[in-house]
């Protein structure tokens, strides 16, 4: 964002960005580029949020690190980064917010951007899928870890899997677990990871079990076509009903192929659960201190979901990224930059 | 298989079970299927553990079997259940304990319905009063008799001289457990361990020295499923369900199957005979079947009761090989004698299942 664009902000003013994921980093980088002083607070010991764990990004399969590095490099000396911090209390005096940290430190600022993101759905809550019980049931995040760390995909016995299944919508669009919303990114993540499995294990059979595939963004549909045409990945429309473990630790799936209208039982060597987003406990805790409202889905509620979706009912408090609901990186970056514009307008009015 | 994962789930699904003073209601069908089980429950809890367990002679069917077979409307079932609660109230009890899993499911469903729709409860109270002049209090505690047995499993183990250990090898017996659908599948929070990895029978097996076998078709229907047996034209489905389970558990070589429902042991036991006659297949070792026990029968074995007092002679799959492994003595010559020592007649030997 060009410095002149935000030059109307009083540079003595400071913005507090809570959360060092993609939304927080983008907002911080944009403000810093514009000459605004920022305090960025992160509860962990690193920036980058969930993307920091991701090996390659859909749909281009570029390394996730390229994105986090891009924003990291833009965080300059106008930014005070606070790692490993826990906010104990938030108070307000006139137009100034005061964050009280566990270590006794107090940090002041004139506006807050809450960018505390999301958590991943705990797959163990879908008890019938056996995560945490069956040896060869893993999550998409764990598969990504394997891609990133070793690049070796094996079963619990150390063998190369001949059959791999991806289960879509785990914890999303699921009334049973109380999450009716779509997590948006899991469909294309499944397609991406299925392709990566085929790249690593060309002889493996790969199956994706889905309700419907929501390929909403640019080049997503193309990736889905590539998965079928180039890589021979099998897409079966049917939601997994349950699975169990065989004596050799392979997994028996039971589902229905709803396109043929037949029940289907299949054995696979590795099953990957495409887990969705849930509102993070940290977001709930901090938003509670600020008195922000949540929607029925638990994500934060903006002042107006169409035209003021970064603004809250509390003047000076802004929300950005996945605190408002599931979002992909492209949307998160755009949203964070839009938040900065709203913050600039607010600070100008003070 | 990671047991820690199951333990986490088991911790999430605990339930309150009363300590004493139980209003006990029998099943419509269990005394025909496994005639010693309910008697054994009363014997254990009255004579061994000295609990107050009361039965009321005016108790009737809860109508659950008709309700789940689509012949008794919910309104009727609720009014009949209200009458059972009235009997409990009149008898001065607050802890309601059912022998039948379907009854437990129906009582749970009705209490949950009344909890969410108080106007329905009021209407049913009106029906009951008009029909019988009775009023009732809802139970303070509702449990299935297997919950109560689970709760006192340690006391039973302490009093019992027998363990689920093969006395020839010293190894724990391998046990397949099967929970009745109406125990926790409708309301997972009302069952120990929830619906997917129920703990109620696992807890007994582990406490009494056995090892639980988890097999791929563990969750599959036992073969009863109400309509697939009660509607005669559907009985092929019933048999197919049981066969699917036997085929799935066979590679694990279970020593026996443990159940907590009226229907499950009936079908898992009798269909082994039917399959052996139809297909010539048996699922146990050396032409034997896999014995099927109710939890009361198993508790009786642990306590060293005479197997013929437990009613084990009416099982279709002979239990003698299991008794031999455990070391519980029995007198083969008394197997088919009644309480007066007179012969009840000996059944014909099956064509394939080993007969003792």
What is the compact description of this entry?
Chain A is an alpha/beta fold and 350 residues long. Chain A has helices at residues 22-33, 64-72, 140-149, 186-200, 220-229, 281-290, 329-348; strands spanning 14-18, 37-41, 56-57, 62-63, 79-82, 87-93, 96-101, 106-109, 111-114, 118-120, 137-139, 163-170, 205-210, 234-237, 242-245, 251-257, 262-268, 270-275, 277-279, 317-319. In chain A, the strands form 6 sheets. A 5-stranded parallel β-sheet of chain A has the order 5-2-1-9-20, sandwiched between helices.
Written overview of the protein:
The complex is a heterodimer of chains A (350) and B (356). In chain A, the strands form six sheets. Chain A has a five-stranded parallel β-sheet, with helices on both faces. Chain A has a five-stranded parallel β-sheet with strand order 11-18-12-13-14. A three-stranded antiparallel β-sheet of chain A has the order 6-7-8. By secondary structure, chain A is α/β, with parallel strands linked by helices. In chain A, strand 12 (163-170), helix 4 (186-200) and strand 13 form a beta-alpha-beta unit. Chain A has two domains: 3-117 and 280-348, FAD/NAD(P)-binding domain (3-Layer(bba) Sandwich); 123-277, FAD/NAD(P)-binding domain. Chain A has helices at residues 22-33, 64-72, 140-149, 186-200, 220-229, 281-290, 329-348, and strands spanning 14-18, 37-41, 56-57, 62-63, 79-82, 87-93, 96-101, 106-109, 111-114, 118-120, 137-139, 163-170, 205-210, 234-237, 242-245, 251-257, 262-268, 270-275, 277-279, 317-319. Chain B is an alpha/beta fold and 356 residues long. Chain B folds into two domains: 15-145, Glutathione S-transferase Yfyf (Class Pi), Chain A, domain 2, CATH 1.20.1050.140; 153-334, Rossmann fold, CATH 3.40.50.11810. Helices cover 44% and strands 8% of the residues of chain B. Chain B has 16 helices and eight strands. Chain B has helices at residues 3-12, 30-33, 37-48, 64-67, 74-91, 101-116, 118-132, 145-151, 153-159, 181-184, 200-207, 227-230, 235-249, 263-279, 295-302, 320-326; strands at residues 22-25, 53-54, 95-98, 141-144, 174-178, 211-213, 256-259, 292-294. Chain B has a four-stranded parallel β-sheet with strand order 2-1-3-4. In chain B, helix 3 packs across helix 15. The two termini of chain B are 37 Å apart. Classes of the chains: A alpha/beta (350), B alpha/beta (356). At the A-B interface, strand 15 of A face helix 1 of B.
